[in-house]
């Protein structure tokens, strides 16, 4: 069975007067666990930030913010886009709050897709579709447009190619109560031809369309009251096989166990804790030393379940030590780097990660890194404080920084990345080891420079953080695989997990608001 459209719902009918900043959606009836749910939330006010369109009720789902269209530079509306894998039941009708949209209309559309393969698979972005969107911070593609001239055609582009069976969802928005028609043939509107919402003298219009195998561009016309400026957004999803969990064969395993409590990390320690000892495939070096930010701590241990390296299975189920980065030393730019014996066309890694950095108190922290020739490209694990209670896990390359998912303080995650010179792409995925090893959000992708092989693995990127903070970041059980470059690269954790949608959502708690995971 292929992906099929299941249903659509909107917060209000077309041509509605809106007198609230809240957009509430009654979901389609008869949804089942594993359905893909995408929600677009539009506010007729430009340049609203990440924390300025938020959920006021998650409906019991683990929402992930997958895009935005801020309308920068033109008279365009603001919009945020969310997705979740349906858990099987709604605790309430989900709702979003425009917060600063008083006096401006707010509208939300929900669209639902289904695929029977989800029982053994998972929804993911069709990543190749937006890889050409250089500089975009999301794994989706947004653009603004100026007022079109007659016949007022607005083209929504950014999808270059999709794998067979992927579904593409496209959105158009404007700051007038336009009607829309002349949609590109073979595309389908999921609901009304458009949704016009009005608050006093302020107006906006929203329209959308979808298509299975929707390659190329899609267009439609502002049928009345054109032409008006606005914004477009587009995304593609596919179904992939859920990752199998086995005792993976990797090329190296760094468990930090063959050391002592409170030791300052050194190349000697790293050499001793990198398995297999006889042939680790490279050497550790310290750049920009001496260093004082990283050390060995028992409180940094996260128990893993073992990997096979060099023909021997290493288990960390009873380990006592991990690696701690001390952010109090803000000017330390030291960096431990493992240089491979030979450059690699493709390599994947994975590691436990937990940070206690306070939200909104720092700019960013660059951790585990796979380096090409450093002046040519790299794949950096980066976290960024984007707003109150908001750590964004990001994948950074030379030309792009792309948001993966929101992560919480003092919570363990398993992060896995891949540097792939064979197709000039880097990938990142994040899993929750204490929540059944379910994937948090979706896999993201960045472009890499062509023809740049990977030459090294670093614990942090050029020192990681350059501002002193009273906090620590913990890492443990680093593994990497260049023989097979398996991705996502997970440790042996027993049974294969349920698909990522089969888990309880978690919430961030703020004294002034309750919001879902983004």
Would you kindly provide a written description of the structure presented here, covering whatever features stand out?
The chain is mainly β and 518 residues long. The protein has two domains: 4-241, no CATH class; 249-481, Jelly Rolls, CATH 2.60.120. 1% of the residues lie in helices and 45% in strands. It is built from one helix and 40 strands. Strands 20, 21, 23, 26, 28, 33, 34, 35, 36 and 38 form a ten-stranded antiparallel beta sheet that branches. Strands 2, 10, 11, 13, 15, 16 and 18 form a seven-stranded mixed beta sheet that branches. The chain has a seven-stranded antiparallel beta sheet with strand order 22-27-37-29-30-31-32. Strand 30 and strand 31 (390-396) form a beta hairpin. It is elongated. Residues 130-136 and 495-518 have low confidence and may be disordered.
Q: Profile the largest sheet.
A: 10 strands, antiparallel
Sum up the overall morphology in one term: elongated
Structural class: mainly beta
Chain-averaged pLDDT: 83
Low-confidence stretches: 130-136, 495-518
How much helix, percentage-wise, in residues?
under 10%
The Rg value, from CA coordinates, equals 24 Å
> What is the number of beta strands?
40
How far apart, in Å, are the first and last alpha carbons? 30 Å
Instruction: Kindly estimate the percentage of residues that lie in beta strands according to DSSP.
Output: over 45%
Counted up, domains total: 2
Work out the helix count.
1
Secondary structure elements and their pairing?
Layout: E1 4-10, E2 16-17, E3 22-24, E4 36-43, E5 54-57, E6 64-69, E7 78-85, E8 95-97, E9 106-114, E10 121-125, E11 141-145, E12 153-156, E13 167-174, E14 179-181, E15 195-199, E16 202-212, E17 218-224, E18 230-241, E19 249-250, E20 252-254, H1 267-273, E21 274-275, E22 282-287, E23 294-297, E24 307-309, E25 312-314, E26 322-326, E27 335-344, E28 346-355, E29 364-371, E30 378-387, E31 390-396, E32 401-407, E33 413-420, E34 425-432, E35 438-439, E36 444-447, E37 454-458, E38 472-481, E39 507-510, E40 513-516
């Amino acid at each position: 069975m292929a992906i099929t459209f299941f249903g659509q719902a909107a917060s209000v009918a077309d041509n509605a007067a809106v007198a609230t900043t809240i957009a509430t959606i009654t979901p389609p009836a008869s949804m089942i666990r594993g359905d893909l749910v995408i929600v677009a939330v539009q506010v007729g006010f430009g340049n609203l930030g990440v924390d300025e369109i938020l959920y006021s009720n998650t409906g019991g789902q683990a929402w992930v913010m997958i895009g935005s269209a801020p309308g920068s530079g033109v008279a365009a509306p603001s919009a945020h886009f969310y997705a979740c894998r349906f858990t099987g039941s709604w605790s309430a009708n989900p709702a979003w709050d425009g917060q600063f949209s008083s006096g401006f209309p707010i509208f939300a559309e929900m669209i639902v897709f289904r695929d029977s393969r989800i029982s053994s698979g998972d929804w993911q972005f069709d990543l190749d579709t937006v890889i050409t969107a250089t500089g975009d911070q999301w794994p989706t593609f947004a653009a603004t447009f100026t007022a079109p001239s007659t016949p007022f055609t607005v083209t929504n582009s950014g999808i270059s190619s999709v794998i067979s069976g992927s579904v593409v969802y496209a959105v158009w928005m404007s700051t007038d109560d336009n009607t829309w028609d002349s949609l590109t043939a073979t595309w389908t509107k999921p609901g009304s031809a458009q949704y016009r919402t009005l608050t006093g003298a302020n107006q906006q219009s929203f329209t959308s369309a979808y298509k299975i195998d929707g390659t190329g561009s899609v267009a439609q016309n502002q049928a009345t009251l054109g032409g008006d400026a606005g914004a477009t957004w587009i995304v593609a999803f596919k179904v992939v096989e859920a990752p199998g969990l086995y005792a993976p064969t990797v090329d190296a395993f760094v468990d930090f166990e063959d050391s002592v409590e409170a030791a300052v990390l050194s190349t000697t320690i790293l050499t001793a804790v990198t398995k297999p000892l006889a042939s680790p495939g490279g050497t550790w070096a310290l750049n920009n030393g001496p260093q004082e930010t990283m050390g060995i701590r028992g409180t940094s241990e996260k128990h893993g379940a073992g990997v096979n390296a060099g023909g021997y299975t290493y288990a960390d189920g009873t380990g006592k030590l991990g690696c701690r980065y001390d952010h109090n030393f803000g000017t330390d730019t030291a960096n431990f780097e493992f240089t491979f014996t030979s450059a690699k066309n493709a390599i994947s890694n994975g590691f436990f990660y937990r940070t206690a950095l306070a939200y909104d108190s720092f700019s960013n922290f660059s951790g585990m890194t796979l380096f090409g020739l450093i002046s040519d490209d790299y794949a950096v694990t980066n976290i960024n404080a984007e707003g109150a209670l908001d750590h964004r896990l990001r994948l950074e390359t030379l030309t792009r920084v792309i948001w993966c998912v929101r992560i919480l303080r003092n919570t363990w995650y398993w992060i896995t990345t891949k540097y792939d010179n064979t197709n000039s792409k880097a990938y990142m995925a994040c899993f929750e080891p204490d929540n059944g090893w379910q994937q948090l959000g979706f896999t993201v992708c960045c472009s890499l420079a062509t023809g740049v092989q990977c030459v090294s693995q670093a614990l942090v990127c050029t020192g990681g953080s350059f501002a002193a903070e009273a906090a620590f970041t913990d890492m443990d059980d680093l593994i990497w695989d260049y023989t097979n470059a398996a991705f996502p690269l997970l440790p042996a954790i027993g049974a294969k997990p349920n698909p990522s949608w089969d888990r309880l959502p978690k919430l961030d708690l703020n004294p002034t608001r309750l919001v879902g995971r983004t």
